[in-house]
Amino acid sequence: MTTARASAAPDPASVASADGDERTGDEQANGERSGDERTGVRRSGGGQPGVRQPGDEYAGARQGTPSRSRGAGTKGVPRARREEQIVTAALEEFGRRGHAAASMAAIARRVGVTKPMLYTYFGSKDGLYAACLEHIGPRLLAAIETAMATSPSRDRLPQAVLAAIFDALEAQRYAWFVLYDRTLPPGSEPWRAAHRHREAIDALAAAGTGALLRGQGNDDALDADALKQVWTGTVSALVGWWVSQPELSAHDMSARCARLLSAIRDGA
Questions:
Q1: What pLDDT digit, counting tens, does each position of 137-147 carry?
Q2: Which residues touch 127 (CB under 8 Å, ≥6 apart)?
Q3: ∠ CA(200), CA(204), CA(209), 5° rounding?
Q4: CA dist., res. 55 & res. 214, Å (int)
Q5: DSSP annotation of 113
Q6: Half-sphere exposure of residue 121, counting CA atoms within 13 Å on the CB side?
Q7: Are residues 64 and 167 in contact, defined by beta-carbon separation less than 8 angstroms?
Q8: What residues contact residue 108 under an 8 Å CB cut-off, 6+ apart?
Q9: CB-hemisphere CA count at 13 Å for 190?
Q10: How far apart are the C-alpha atoms of 267 and 190, rounded to whole Å?
């Protein structure tokens, strides 16, 4: 059950382009490096826990943003752990700013490593974006599938799916907008990858809304399509609103939506 990017979230199309990160991975990897940059470690004090870094343009949504680990920016961090740190930071940057305006330098600062390390690990900005999609897409799909399979009844299905989405996004709320990024160049590999994930989730949305209508004896295909659009827009709006309410947990959002859906059902 999906949607286009919510109006409540920052519109990355209005943000200035990133700082020259569109160079290829080879160009970045072959750039001049000195001292600790050969190991991907900063000489400067960047990456210290609790220190707000340049480019960390938070808009009040600190909830759900993973704190930087003590090992970030130091030698000896296992590659798998370092990749996890980078993807976590990239989900925040890409989700907040969009592919077009996201900065590889800002992602590196969030983790406490050098920009060349990102290219060494992921090859390019597009490669890192693809890794983010593979992180969040299957997680959301699995959460929605489980909710649909275990929902106690059709009329409780919307509530169950919303709760599953909030739980999946609890620690990475902006990840939702990585899937629904309007700044992805049409036809590009990131665009195609995001489209594949969206199609899979949209198919579940169509199945769920169609089942609700059929349960009421309505087999009209256009009604089903219209209801799917209403649902996906609602989900996007709720996630966007949640981003602006960092004090609310996934449980809080689930309870709030249960109250709202109950009010809608009772007033119908």
A1: 999 999 999 99
A2: 25
A3: 145
A4: 49
A5: B
A6: 25
A7: no
A8: 114, 115, 117, 118
A9: 22
A10: 43
